[in-house]
Each structure stands twice: as structure tokens, then as C-alpha cells.
């Protein structure tokens, strides 16, 4: 029979609390040799899908090139619709639970362009649904008439809910 | 994916769907992401113009 050894010569005590309910409870240690608390190799893998009660999660993201146009990489995105210059819609593979999700967008900087660029969910068309979200990209300007829709090579979108 | 889905909007402009590598077929993506009632066409990516200078004037013929 294996033995349990408690080592150390400092003062104090070790307490193992058990739940105040009936039934057997088993503490299972990994088969590999090591220190469970400090040896990463001995720690059990954590399945992210088992995590619950998270305040907010990334539900979808896409790295999109408007100029090609093409999808560089994505998660939970079935497609991107190129509607027109500076106007595209991200379509989700699995729909969001509501329409209050966060839609974060950012445009990559380009040496070939001048000034800044703003990208965000399209408030003009009220086109935010559980299955898709439309975005528009405009060149920065102090005049709304000059803030033209524009295509950018790097477009990063993150959907959080 | 080397295919694109093209459909015409009510104002005669066209939208072009770029499919993601999401495990769905191009037909499944078309069924899901083309607006209800819109006629669509699946084309090769090579058939889409690369010069987007007049992108908003593109029409389906």
C-alpha cells in the first residue's frame, strides 16, 4: 500500500476540509512525478469550453482585407460581404444571442495612405442583427462631406458578448 | 476558398460574399448569408475584377 508523507519542520498545521455533506470524495493526483502546484507538466489540462460565468467572451473575430478582398483568418465567421467601397458585412457561423453584443473594429496603418481611418459598426443603416453586423470605414476628416468611404488592407473585427 | 457569391441589391449595385474557411460549403454559405429572396451566382474568384477604383459602379450582367 502506498503511503502519505507530510514533510517539513516548521510550525503550523495542515488541514484538509471536506464538504459537510454525505458521500465519498476523492482527491486524485496525476500519475506523473512532480509538484502539482508548481510543475506545469503535472497540471491537468483546462478545457476552455467548460468555463462558465465569464462576464464576456469573444464570440467571433475576423482579419479581413478589403482590397483583395479576402479573409486572412477568422473564428465563427461564415463569410464577409463586400457591399461597396468601405462597406462590408461580417456574417456569423453561429448567431449571437442578442443584438447588444460589442463590435470592435480597427484598421491597420498604411504608409501609402495619409491621415487616419475610422471603422465601426454601421449605425446609419441600423444593420446589426444576431447573424451579421455591417461596418463602414471612412477616412478621417473635419468635414463630413470629405469623410469618404474607403477600403483598407488590414481590417480587424472582434465580436464580444 | 476560390469561389465568390454575387447578388444584386435593390439599387442595382452588387454585393460579393467572401466565404470563410468555416466548415460550410459554398452552397451552405450562400443559403445562409445571401439575403432572403435574392438571386445569387457562384463564380470563380478570378472572375471578380481586381481594380476596385469604380467598385460602386459594378453591375451584374
Can you offer a commentary on this structure?
The complex is a heterodimer of chains A (about 160) and B (about 60). Chain A is mainly β. Chain A has a domain of about 100 residues. In chain A, about 0% of the residues lie in helices and about 35% in strands. Chain A is built from no helices and 8 strands. A 4-stranded antiparallel β-sheet of chain A has the order 2-1-8-5, with no helix packed on it. A 4-stranded antiparallel β-sheet of chain A has the order 3-4-7-6, with no helix packed on it. Chain B has about 60 residues and is α+β, with helices and mostly antiparallel strands. In chain B, about 15% of the residues lie in helices and about 30% in strands. Chain B has a 3-stranded antiparallel β-sheet with strand order 2-1-3, with helices on one face. In chain B, a hairpin with a 5-residue loop joins strand 1 and strand 2. Chain B is globular. Chain B starts with a strand and ends in a 17-residue tail after the last strand. Strand 3 of chain A pairs antiparallel with strand 2 of chain B, so a sheet runs across the interface.
Amino acid at each position: 500500500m502506498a503511503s502519505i508523507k507530510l514533510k517539513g519542520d516548521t510550525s503550523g498545521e495542515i488541514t484538509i476540509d471536506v464538504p459537510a455533506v454525505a458521500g465519498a470524495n476523492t482527491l486524485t493526483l496525476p500519475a506523473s512525478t512532480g509538484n502539482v502546484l508548481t510543475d506545469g507538466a503535472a497540471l491537468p489540462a483546462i478545457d476552455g469550453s467548460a468555463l462558465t460565468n465569464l462576464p464576456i467572451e469573444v464570440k467571433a473575430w475576423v482579419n479581413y482585407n478589403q482590397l483583395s478582398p479576402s479573409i486572412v483568418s477568422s473564428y465563427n465567421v461564415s463569410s464577409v460581404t463586400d457591399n461597396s467601397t468601405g462597406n462590408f458585412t461580417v456574417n456569423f457561423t453561429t448567431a449571437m444571442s442578442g443584438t447588444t453584443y460589442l463590435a470592435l473594429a480597427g484598421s491597420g496603418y498604411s504608409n501609402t495612405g495619409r491621415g487616419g481611418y475610422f471603422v465601426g459598426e454601421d449605425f446609419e443603416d441600423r444593420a446589426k442583427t444576431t447573424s451579421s453586423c455591417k461596418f463602414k470605414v471612412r477616412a478621417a476628416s473635419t468635414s463630413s462631406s470629405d469623410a469618404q468611404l474607403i477600403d483598407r488592407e488590414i481590417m480587424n473585427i472582434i465580436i464580444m458578448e | 476558398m476560390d469561389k465568390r457569391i454575387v447578388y444584386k441589391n435593390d439599387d442595382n449595385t452588387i454585393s460579393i460574399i467572401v466565404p470563410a474557411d468555416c466548415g460550410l460549403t459554398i452552397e451552405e454559405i450562400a443559403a445562409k448569408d445571401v439575403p432572403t429572396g435574392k438571386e445569387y451566382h457562384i463564380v470563380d474568384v478570378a472572375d471578380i475584377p481586381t481594380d476596385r477604383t469604380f467598385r460602386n459602379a459594378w453591375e451584374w450582367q
